[in-house]
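hiii, so i know i said id send this last week but things got crazy w the move. better late than never?? heres the sequnce for the chain we talked about at the cafe, plus the structure i predicted for it. fair warning i was half asleep when i ran it
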Amino acid sequence: MQDDKTASADKSDWSEMMRASLHGDAAAYRHLLSEMVPVLRGIVRSRASGMGMDWCEDVVQDTLMAIHLKRGTWKPELPLRPWVYAIARHKIVDAFRRSGREISMPVEAFADLPQPEPDIDPMESRDAETLIDRLPERDAALLRCLALDGHGNDECGRRLGLAPGALRVALHRALKRLAAIRREEGL
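okay and structure toks below
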């Protein structure tokens, strides 16, 4: 068990190593990063229950990259550890957000499902077209391609020049805008 002086000295060592690295001491910087890695791994693993080791290692690497890129923003008169821990917290949150947006089942898995025969009321189709016409052109073209023309994601992506991920994002945004228009109309 460390006493307060030893713990305090350990914490100031990181600060001293960072100060030295900011003055061009590459060896101090390498040593600092090598000391940070196990600490960051522990922080990430303790907050990432249920996430795999690859996920944790990616977050550690993202954190180290952010520290490297932003090291010039650290104020040398302040302790380094709180600054490092704040970056780690932000990178963990970012990674959870990213993983929450990922689809665990590929869209292609749904391609072979039988599609119900559309029973389209011509009035509903005209109403949909009227609402879609109020969207920005890119959103309108995407919704027309998918919903009104009945093309699949791949075909619409090719027609509009969108990668699969960009198509999903664009579709989500188009549907949000369409929902806002419907709310305005009281529909």
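btw Residues 1-12 have pLDDT under 50 and may be disordered. thought thatd interest u
miss u guys!!
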